[in-house]
Amino acid sequence: MIYRGSCHCGAVTFEVEAPEVVEADYCNCSVCKKSGYLHLIVPRSRFRQLSGEDALTTYTFNTGVAKHTFCKTCGVKPFYIPRSNPDGVDVNVHCLDTQGVAVNITEFDGQNWELHAHKLAAKSRED
User: Fold this and answer.
1) Is the model's pLDDT at 99 over the cut of 80?
2) What are the residues facing 49 on neighbouring strands?
3) What pTM, to 2 d.p., does this model score?
């Protein structure tokens, strides 16, 4: 299925191809917990930014591999390039515009990222 999504103000829009039932990860690390991020990691080929490239700003920390992108206007983080899958895109399920998206949520222990990162490593691979 093709899902459309956006930041809160609508300046940044995107499409993502994902199964009808979305498999998402809830991470308890400090940045995800504080921002309320719900992860859907996909290959880059299944993601397309439609608008707002100039409306994004990027935040990096720690290793600098993850590129956390935020809308400059509303501050929402609709997607980013994750450290666990730098060849993919991590979409915030909360930013999908479709009402009633069926989501299966898996808990991910991001507070102990180094011990558990291998569980995410294959999410950006093409099936």
Assistant:
1) no
2) 14
3) 0.88
pLDDT tens-digit profile of 10-60? 999 999 999 999 999 998 988 888 888 999 999 999 999 999 999 999 998
Q: Is residue 118 part of a domain?
A: no
Split into its structural domains, the chain has a count of: 1
Going by DSSP bridges, is the β-strand pair 88-92/102-108 parallel, antiparallel, or unpaired?
Answer: unpaired
Range of the domain at 90: 2-24+37-104
Helix, strand, coil percent content, the chain, rounded in steps of 5: 20, 40, 40
Which amino acid, residue 69? T
Structure tokens at 18: 């994902």
For 75, the 3-state DSSP assignment is coil
How many CB atoms lie under 10 A from the CB of residue 22?
A: 20
CA distance 117 to 64: 16
- Take residue 118 and report the two structure tokens written for it: 């291998």
| Residue 32 covered by a domain | no
